[in-house]
Amino acid sequence: MQGQQTAPLAEQTRQSSLTVSFEPFEERAVPGLLRRFVTTSRHLLGLSLGALAARLNHGPLSQRRGMAYPMFRILLLFATYFSNKELLNLRFPVQLRRRLEMLGPTYIKLGQVLSLREDILPKAITGELKNLLDRLPVVNFERYQELIVEGLNRPIHEMFSWISPEPLGSASIAQIHRARTLDGEEVILKVVKPGIRKTLETDAVLIALLGRVLQLLLPQFQPRLVLQEFTDYTLREADLRLEADNAETFAANFNDMDDILFPRIYRDYSSETVLCMEFFNGVKPDSDAAKTLTKEDREHLVHRGAAAIVRMLYQDGFFHADLHPGNLMILPGNKCGFIDLGMVGRFEDGLRQKMMYYYYSLVIGDAVSAARYLTTVARPAPGGQPRDFQRAVEDAARRWHRSANFHDFSIGHLIMNSVTMGAKYRMYFPMEMVLMTKALVTFEGVGNMLVPGFNVAEVSRKEITKVFFNQFHPLSLLKKGLRESPEILEALAKTPMLISQSLKVLEEVTPQQSHHPLKGLGASIFGGFCLMSGSVMLAVNSTLWIHAALLIGMAIVLISRRD
Length: 563
What we know:
Elements: H1 2-18, H2 33-57, H3 68-79, H4 85-88, H5 92-103, H6 105-114, H7 123-129, H8 141-152, E1 160-163, E2 169-170, E3 174-181, E4 186-192, H9 196-217, H10 223-237, H11 240-253, E5 260-261, E6 274-278, H12 288-291, H13 295-316, E7 318-320, E8 328-331, E9 335-338, E10 344-346, H14 349-364, H15 367-377, E11 379-380, H16 386-402, H17 411-421, E12 427-428, H18 431-450, H19 456-470, H20 474-509, H21 521-540, H22 544-562
Parallel strand pairs: 5-9
Antiparallel strand pairs: 1-3, 2-3, 3-4, 4-6, 7-10, 8-9, 11-12
């Protein structure tokens, strides 16, 4: 039944996509570092003058009539000869968006990432940056085919029987078309646009320089770290082999969930600049056809989607970092499909556990623990106030739990507000935390499209509880022990040698003669124990407190000798 509903709409969606018009992509020589520096500097100067104009025309300076006001006006009048007059009359957030678009794909991508950073940027700016172009100029079909041949080193007729001349989409880095293999399988071809990789690498150097400058001016916002995270993510997106790896990792993580699907990768037809993957014949959750599904089907999809999101975030620590309705598919058989896997977030095991404890504490109503775990994730800047931040987060969590209507203030928005609150107390979060929050907020929105009144906290409580207790399951503990067994076995193998060396040290430092033979014996024994214990732990993993155990043991032995 589901397949009968989705197939016609999928065909309608494909047909409508053919009518979408795109501007042509102009392939130019990639500018050198110096030329790109001049262009970028010109726009930065224009943006600075635009900020002054915005403050004079729309900000607090517009109300001043002191000595500074005419000086600023004269400066602005002088600046109009060197800047775009049309842009100067716009509000600053609009100027910022327009200039990012003028600077090209790298800066458009930067703006899209910055639009997520509501924890460090004003809402007026993040809101405007959400309006950045999402359909960029397309490479003409002939050139697109040439790029496929260049990327795969094979003629097209040996791989594909048909490639659609009309693009399905065009973003800042790549362009996608439908195609069909010689075996008759429907696929998607994603191809990196010409010159993009070189442009990204050049811009990455300039953005790193900009980050250093901004770090001196605005250290409380950690701009250097934010921009470094951006360039790392963007350069990874330009290597389509990594997206292929991501898709296969997701598929392996969810191999026991038949209703959560990720595109199959065709490795024979993929490379660094070309990606061939399975075509999903489904519909988007915000489409009219999705609304025709039965209530039971829609509720099933929402519950399975919630299970997938919780599993990605808090069990695997490997999650889709660019979730929006366009990257989710409803597939025949009441299945959920995730596409566009170039941007992923990763939680290291320690961070994943803290975030799992945080989310679990929220959904069970433990505001104190939730605030404590979230505070441990944040990085205090100079002058940071972690205790005040923890109290504020705790108060917000309590208000959320007291709220009679969870839909007015969802858990995703609670987490977003808590993260945003960090800027007030100079507590900043890693990019992965922001991406996690976006994933939750996006899924809440999708859930409400399918099931009005959807409460992700209620739906995900069962799943996060399962993940929480699974980590203490004997099998999970055994797997963890097996992962660490090489280090443990190595430490055990070294133990006899370490004990022998420790005893030799004790013999060397123990007095040969003493009027009180038992004096200091207890301290010597205890010191030797500390020394041997520290040696064994040092063989497993070297950390500062283990070094301290060794030093303390030695100190006690030496003190006992002196006595």
